[in-house]
């Protein structure tokens, strides 16, 4: 059964509305809950209320239907009928438990069973179990909230014995009736336990006493023993899974240890910046990230499949998130959605999150697993079967408070890590749960046995340091040797003299008996959560680490500035505290600081301007405006007069939340009228960021400047409504309901109509509307309203994906073709039947304020034509194609009347609605006559004898098609109101379910409340005033819509019926054209060009960033190593190789160019290693090496080298101190090494001065390298050719095929095959080049210098990749094509 919880606001005592729910109320459905087990017939009886830090106890007595508060879980409140309270109190006699364990009752489980079970309950501290098992045996079976489950019951509940199960439990009959609990259960054979008695009762569950919650612990505590035939509801809340956890929260504790991670982060940042240049790469990265997430989440499902007797768990594609499916399909097609606003927004959010995660270290991961205890492990030991036994493992639990929580434990394999079938548990790490008392007993026992030990009882055990229990907690683990600097610093910080003081975990305290549960719920939902407190504790540790970094690496001036800054801040605090009139205690300041970090809570105010714009004001409770709140801070009942409230919007320069809310809203208080108008406005709240973005797009520059200057933008007579703020959970629930509704909507449409319906919705969703001009709010007139086709994507995903296989957006709209200065085809008459070569380019060489700067432009026949309209379909910049061009009809005309009384052209509009639609005028002479005509009357809906409002255009068509658009026609409809005031409207629904919309409600109905009332309305028509037009030959040319034109004519006395203009000249305002692309001729660019981002607000040369770079460099810089190699192989001038001593210098690869320049400047000759394999160990760790002849290194160079390196290491013989030092350093990740290698080569070529003396390579070596290149080319040429045949896309010069690592190119004119590293086809040097003639491949040279050949040429591992990985796939594809071809031939013969 499913429990349905309706949501309501406790403060407003109103249901939270949601149109997507059938009931109209936001409803949440939860399956398999403990609450359902105890109340099996209460499917629709419960509801959720919500509270925040400003809620009062009296608010919690509110409920729309009079229900009462039963349970709470943080800010979630569970309400139900009064008669349920007695059972809740029986389950939780101590009122605090109704709040402490509310989450146990409402947590949905994946699976659940209800049946009689036999349960052995064990005291997990003493092992007492009712003499069923020896106490020491029983004690080893359990831990804090951890027990065991028989394999048979585990399979029945979850289908597997390979996972530890997080459970919820309720006893519904037997001696344990009314008991409930939670914890983890590890599958284990329970039938062979050493029984103390002859009782052979089958045991289903072994539970610790700590798993049971609630109940009367004082008078009726749970008793250990065997309980048989108990009616039990058991739910699987979750199961152990392998995963990863970000270690970002731990980095603050080891400022010097982060040198292990910084190089990786820097390289990931370089990769992300490279990806960001190309929208296709961003989309590919998006899809890869999602697929990796799915893989990590589902990686243990193979085991479940084996356990399920062959039943397959199918993860259908329809279950994937919608945006992933759309973007994935678009990448496999023409990439035509990548410039749509919906996809652009999604990818921008994704990249922002990627950069944020990278900046805070969230890309750094440890392995994550659920923990269970084992008595075979002692303090300092751990069991993670993913790592070798005996290794030291770093491990931590989230939330991470300080460095005490990072443990370094010895990996020891134990039996508890294996399931009943002898396989390792999936997603489980076994830890010790040894207490200090047991450690002391163990040490004492060793000493009594004559065994000496240095072990002492720690101040805190590992369990205490991490706050472990075993009800589903997870920890992150990683081998310590991977991060040696981090491990070293963590170890140092955890020495007894350096560690933080232990934090005592207090027991849950009960409340006084006279405290109501409503007051208890308020207290237990303290707004300052554990997470917030934890964040501030780690922030303090980060400050300590920052000081350590300044002390170690900061310059003298940096240290001085830091101390001065901190000192000035504290002087300010002291001054505030000692202020004689209004002292501010320092502790209160800290409390305010914490408040500013909390999320947005409390009611919100919805405001609607007279122009219909809706905005939201939040944080009302922080300001408590007297119009909304009483003297005691309570929320007032809103007066109807508030529909005339005046507000002012200003920049939030000093107020609360200024970092997250940039604009503040003030409101006029009607009870105080001052002579200075500004004093009438008091702070009301902060404008939500979403509303700020809406207003930013609507307001003109002058209005925005008034807001920013502090003068403020005043908007009068707005309507207001207090509403409930939606929690994150409620927002997600609403989205889920909306998607469910759209899925149901899709199913109601016949299959054959879905494509047409999807196309119509797309057109409506991407069409633009306009807004009326004027108004005191400073809104822009006639501003286009750009829409995003969210509805089409969500309602018709399959139809959209199907259409992506072919190019759909072939009609491109260009604008500004009337601007002669930039349109190089100005005045050209286009032949729409002629196809011309076009290219999409962008001008980023223009000034940033130029109208065509950074806008995609259409170039026709090599000459600039016009920019693409921003709402038009786009093709990637660099795309080439053939297209026809046709100027679009003009909607307005410019008329030179040539009358002496008027000397400026007149503008007329609505041209396309009259006789000369689709006609273009070019300096055409015409005799015109001014006349007044009466427009068609406006269809309206009447309620009684009053006009209710006007029908919108779509509704007019609906009624007209139904034959109901008849004057006096009566309709029986239900009316549902939306909004209040000027912009309000009604949805009218007939008895058959057909709906139409009524806009522009008459003012008398603005405050009327319509809530699905059935009424009889009448169709009517409202006459409109005559409007002036210009006639040509007795037909309407257009309407005088422009106010300025009418004023000019009126002032000249010409705005009269019948006025003649015999010598008028008419010109069309042709500003746009349609470019129709032939999809068969489209050639996409190999590398996309991304539009330049807006001006970066961050100054890259700011002192803060300079300091950051300096610290990063110092933290990650490898120490230079100077060594002597006695048997180095030098190449003489005549090409001979001689073993002679060499002085080697290993330096950080990033510093090698500067090092070589310095050596050359000192006159020291140096060379790189003759064979790159000689320095492979160094390169794996980020080093590069140069060699010098010792006798040619002057003392003036040798002394500073020795001083910088500290000592001279020996690289020959034994001990090889240099090799030992190199091998003691950690290797860099492989992709970092490859990146360093590429960047290093480029740096060397660019940085080494021409005067550098390098020993030349012998000619024989060059010949050998060329021979190897030819051999490797011959080995893979045919594979590359086949790959091009299968995957190649046409280009102007031949074809191209882009793989994961390489790009293959076919040059038709030269009959040449070329192979490049992916994305480097613009380079002049390919990695392979071969001529194809007569079925043979002739290797061609790729470079004119040996250095280029060394760098770009094919490597052995690449050849091996083509032979072992690419060739089998290519052969399989070719075989498949041959079979298809043969099948077609056979079917053709049969026909």
UniProtKB/TrEMBL annotation:
<feature type="region of interest" description="Disordered">
    <location>
        <begin position="457"/>
        <end position="477"/>
    </location>
</feature>
<protein>
    <submittedName>
        <fullName>Uncharacterized protein</fullName>
    </submittedName>
</protein>
<feature type="compositionally biased region" description="Basic and acidic residues">
    <location>
        <begin position="462"/>
        <end position="471"/>
    </location>
</feature>
């Amino acid at each position: 059964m499913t429990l349905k919880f309706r949501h309501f606001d406790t403060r407003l005592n109103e249901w939270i509305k949601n149109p997507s729910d059938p009931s109209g109320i936001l409803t949440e459905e939860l399956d398999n809950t403990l609450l359902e087990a105890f109340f099996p017939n209460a499917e629709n009886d419960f509801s959720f209320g919500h509270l925040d830090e400003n809620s009062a106890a009296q608010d919690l007595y509110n409920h729309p239907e009079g229900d009462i508060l039963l349970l709470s879980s943080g800010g979630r409140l569970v309400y139900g009928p009064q008669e349920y309270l007695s059972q809740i109190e029986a389950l939780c006699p101590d009122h605090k438990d109704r709040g402490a364990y509310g989450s146990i009752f409402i947590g949905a489980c994946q699976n659940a069973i209800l049946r009689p079970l036999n349960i052995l309950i064990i005291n997990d501290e003493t092992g007492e179990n009712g003499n069923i098992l020896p106490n020491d045996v029983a004690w080893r079976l359990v831990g804090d909230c951890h027990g065991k489950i028989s394999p048979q019951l585990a399979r029945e509940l979850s289908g597997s014995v390979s996972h530890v199960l997080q459970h919820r439990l309720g006893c519904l009959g037997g001696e344990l009736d009314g008991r409930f609990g939670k914890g983890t259960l590890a599958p284990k054979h329970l039938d062979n336990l050493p029984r103390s008695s002859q009782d052979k009762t089958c045991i289903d569950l072994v539970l610790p006493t700590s798993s049971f919650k609630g109940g009367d612990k004082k008078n009726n505590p749970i008793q250990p023993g065997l309980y048989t035939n108990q009616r039990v509801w058991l739910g699987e809340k979750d199961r152990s899974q392998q995963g990863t956890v970000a270690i970002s929260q731990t980095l603050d504790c080891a400022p010097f240890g982060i040198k292990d991670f910084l190089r990786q982060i820097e390289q990931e940042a370089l990769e992300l910046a490279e990806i960001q240049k190309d929208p296709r790469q961003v989309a590919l990265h998006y899809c890869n990230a999602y697929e990796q997430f799915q893989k990590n989440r589902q990686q243990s499902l193979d085991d479940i499949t084996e356990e399920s007797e062959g039943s397959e768990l199918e993860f259908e594609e329809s279950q994937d998130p919608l945006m992933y499916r759309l973007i994935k399909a678009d990448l496999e097609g023409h990439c035509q959605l990548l410039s749509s606003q919906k996809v652009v927004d999604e990818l921008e959010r994704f990249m922002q999150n990627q950069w944020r995660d990278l900046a805070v270290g969230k890309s750094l991961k440890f392995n994550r697993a659920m923990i269970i205890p084992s008595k075979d492990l002692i303090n300092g030991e751990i069991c993670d079967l993913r790592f070798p036994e005996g290794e030291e493992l770093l491990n931590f639990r989230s939330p991470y408070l300080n460095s005490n929580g990072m443990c370094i434990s010895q990996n020891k394999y134990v039996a508890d890590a294996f399931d009943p079938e002898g396989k390792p548990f999936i997603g489980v790490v076994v830890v010790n749960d040894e207490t200090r008392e047991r450690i002391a007993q163990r040490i004492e026992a060793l000493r009594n046995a004559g065994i000496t030990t240095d072990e002492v009882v720690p101040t805190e055990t590992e369990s205490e340091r991490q706050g472990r229990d075993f009800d589903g907690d997870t920890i992150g683990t990683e081998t310590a040797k991977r991060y040696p600097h981090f491990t070293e610093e963590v170890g140092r910080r955890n020495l007894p003299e350096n560690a933080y003081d232990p934090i005592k975990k207090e027991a849950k305290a009960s409340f006084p008996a006279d405290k109501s549960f409503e007051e208890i719920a308020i207290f237990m939902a303290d707004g300052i959560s554990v997470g917030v407190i934890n964040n501030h504790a780690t922030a303090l540790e980060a400050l300590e680490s920052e000081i350590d970094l300044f002390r170690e690496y900061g310059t003298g001036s940096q240290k001085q500035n830091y101390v001065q800054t901190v000192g000035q801040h504290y002087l300010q605090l002291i001054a505030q505290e000692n202020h004689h009139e209004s002292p501010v205690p320092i502790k209160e300041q800290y409390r305010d600081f914490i408040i500013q970090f909390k999320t947005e809570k409390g009611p919100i105010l919805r405001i609607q301007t007279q122009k219909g714009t809706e905005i939201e004001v939040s944080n009302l409770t922080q300001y408590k405006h007297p119009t909304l709140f009483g003297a005691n801070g309570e929320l007032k009942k809103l007066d109807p007069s508030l529909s005339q409230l005046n507000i002012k919007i200003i920049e939030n320069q000093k107020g609360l939340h200024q970092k997250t809310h940039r604009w503040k809203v003030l409101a006029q208080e009607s009870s105080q009228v001052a002579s200075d108008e500004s004093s009438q406005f008091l702070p009301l709240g902060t404008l939500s960021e979403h509303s700020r973005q809406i207003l930013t797009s609507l307001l003109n520059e002058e209005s925005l400047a008034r807001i920013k200057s502090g003068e403020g933008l005043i908007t009068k007579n707005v309507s207001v409504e207090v509403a409930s703020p939606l929690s994150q959970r409620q927002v997600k629930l609403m989205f889920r309901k909306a998607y469910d509704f759209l899925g149901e909507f899709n199913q109601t449409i016949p299959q054959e109509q879905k494509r047409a319906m999807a196309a119509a919705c797309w057109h409506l969703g991407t069409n633009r509307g306009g807004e009326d001009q004027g108004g005191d709010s400073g809104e822009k007139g006639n501003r286009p309203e750009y829409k995003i086709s969210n509805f089409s994507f969500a309602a018709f995903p399959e139809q959209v994906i199907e259409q992506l296989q072919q190019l759909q957006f072939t009609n491109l709209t260009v604008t500004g073709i009337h601007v002669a200065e930039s349109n190089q085809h100005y005045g050209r008459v286009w032949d729409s039947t002629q196809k011309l070569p076009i290219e999409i380019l962008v001008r980023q060489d223009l000034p940033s304020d130029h109208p065509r700067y950074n806008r995609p432009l259409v170039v026709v026949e090599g000459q600039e034509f016009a920019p693409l309209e921003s709402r038009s379909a786009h093709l990637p910049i660099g795309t080439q194609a053939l297209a026809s061009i046709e100027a679009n009809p003009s909607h307005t005309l410019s008329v030179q009347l040539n009358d002496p009384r008027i000397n400026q052209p007149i503008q007329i509009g609505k041209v396309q609605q009259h006789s000369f639609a689709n006609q273009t005028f070019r300096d055409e002479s015409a005799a015109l006559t001014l006349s007044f005509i009466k427009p068609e009357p406006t269809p309206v809906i009447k309620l009684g004898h009053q006009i209710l409002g006007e029908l919108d255009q779509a509704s007019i068509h609906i009624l007209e098609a139904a034959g109901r658009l008849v004057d006096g026609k009566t309709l029986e409809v239900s009316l549902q109101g939306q909004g209040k005031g000027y912009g309000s409207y009604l949805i009218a629904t007939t008895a058959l379910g057909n709906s139409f919309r009524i806009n522009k409600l008459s003012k008398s109905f603005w405050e009327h409340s319509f809530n699905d009332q059935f009424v009889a309305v009448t169709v009517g028509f409202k006459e409109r005033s005559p409007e002036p037009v210009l006639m040509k030959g007795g037909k309407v040319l257009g309407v005088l819509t422009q106010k300025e034109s009418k004023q000019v004519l009126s002032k000249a006395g010409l705005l009269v019926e019948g006025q003649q203009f015999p010598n008028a000249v008419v010109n069309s305002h042709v500003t746009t054209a349609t470019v129709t692309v032939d999809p068969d001729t489209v050639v996409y660019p190999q590398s996309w060009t991304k539009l330049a981002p807006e001006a970066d607000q961050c100054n890259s040369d700011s002192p803060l960033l300079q300091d950051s770079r300096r610290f990063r460099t110092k933290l990650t810089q490898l120490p230079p190593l100077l060594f002597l190699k006695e048997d180095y192989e030098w190449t003489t001038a005549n090409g001979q190789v001689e073993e002679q001593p060499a002085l080697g210098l290993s330096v950080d690869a990033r510093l090698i160019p500067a090092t070589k320049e310095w050596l050359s400047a000192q006159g020291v000759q140096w060379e790189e290693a003759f064979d790159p394999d000689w320095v492979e160990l160094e390169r794996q760790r980020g080093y590069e090496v140069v060699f010098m002849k010792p006798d040619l290194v002057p003392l003036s160079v040798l002394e500073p080298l020795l001083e910088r390196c500290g000592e001279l290491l020996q690289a020959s013989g034994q001990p090889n101190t240099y090799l030992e030092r190199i091998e003691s350093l950690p290797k860099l990740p492989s992709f970092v090494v490859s990146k360093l290698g590429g960047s290093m080569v480029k740096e060397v070529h660019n940085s080494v001065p021409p005067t550098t003396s390098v020993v030349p390579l012998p000619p024989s070596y060059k010949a050998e390298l060329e021979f190897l290149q030819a051999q490797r080319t011959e080995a893979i040429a045919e594979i590359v050719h086949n790959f091009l045949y299968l995957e190649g896309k046409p280009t102007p010069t031949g074809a191209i095929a882009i793989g994961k690592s390489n790009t293959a190119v076919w040059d038709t004119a030269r009959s040449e095959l070329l192979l490049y590293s992916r994305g480097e086809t613009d380079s002049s040097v390919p990695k392979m080049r071969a001529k194809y003639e007569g079925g043979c491949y002739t290797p061609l040279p790729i470079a004119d210098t040996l250095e280029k050949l060394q760098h770009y040429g094919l490597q052995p591992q690449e050849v091996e990749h083509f032979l072992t990985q690419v060739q089998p796939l290519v052969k399989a594809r070719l075989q498949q094509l041959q079979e298809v071809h043969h099948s077609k031939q056979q079917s053709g013969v049969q026909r």
